[in-house]
Design brief:
Helix content is 15%, strand content 36%. With 226 residues, the chain is of the alpha+beta class. The strands form two sheets. The chain has a 13-stranded antiparallel beta sheet with strand order 7-6-5-4-3-2-1-15-14-13-10-9-8. Strands 11-12 form a two-stranded antiparallel ribbon. Strand 13 and strand 14 form a beta hairpin. The longest helix is centred in the C-terminal third of the chain and has 26 residues. The N terminus is likely disordered.
Length: 226
Amino acid sequence: MGSELTLVNLAPPTAYFLSSADLKDAVIYANPGLPLYRITSDARHIKIYDGTTPSRIIAILHRRDLFPDTISFPQRHSNSGTGTGTGHVSVQRWLKRSKLPDGTPTFTIDTEYGPYVWKSTSRYRQKVRLASLALSVADISPTLSPYFIPVGVDVDVVLRQVFAQYDLENPIASCYLHPSLAPSKPALILQSSGEPLRDDIIVAYLVQRHRVTMENKALDLFVGPS
């Protein structure tokens, strides 16, 4: 029997929804009534639980005022330097800033399946009122993303897609970082090929969502709500 190409019908992508933009008590689900992840937060921590096994903590974001936030994965075996062990690792080290060969800024996470790249692919604009002087978010807090906002320009909130580093043409996930999400709008859409990475993608999505929320709050404090 000669060799022949076998066509595989991949399962359709799955949409995941966030029950609340407030991460103090929220769930992520694909089907209503079946929480896959539960998120709780206080002034010091954001904890992400396995929604099907409530005692299992997938990750903890440790919030710090004067130093970069750290992240830990209590259920994973120690693997020093990769952010996959039980100890704390800086979020900046786990979700590393990087650039593509063409200069496009990205974030990269290392997983057991190899490195995956988060890339901003489209934007929508959120209007804010700015003071008479130009504002750099880095001037508000050194832990926030160092982008620069000229006077009178809207703030960008982005759609980020996730790619395997070896394939930057076909995203495995699309993640929406809107400050608020309508009940009918998914927080992220994950291709079936990305399901083995779902925990990492969910955690990285929530870390970036928290970052965007903190940046918006810092702007509100500085110039007032839009």
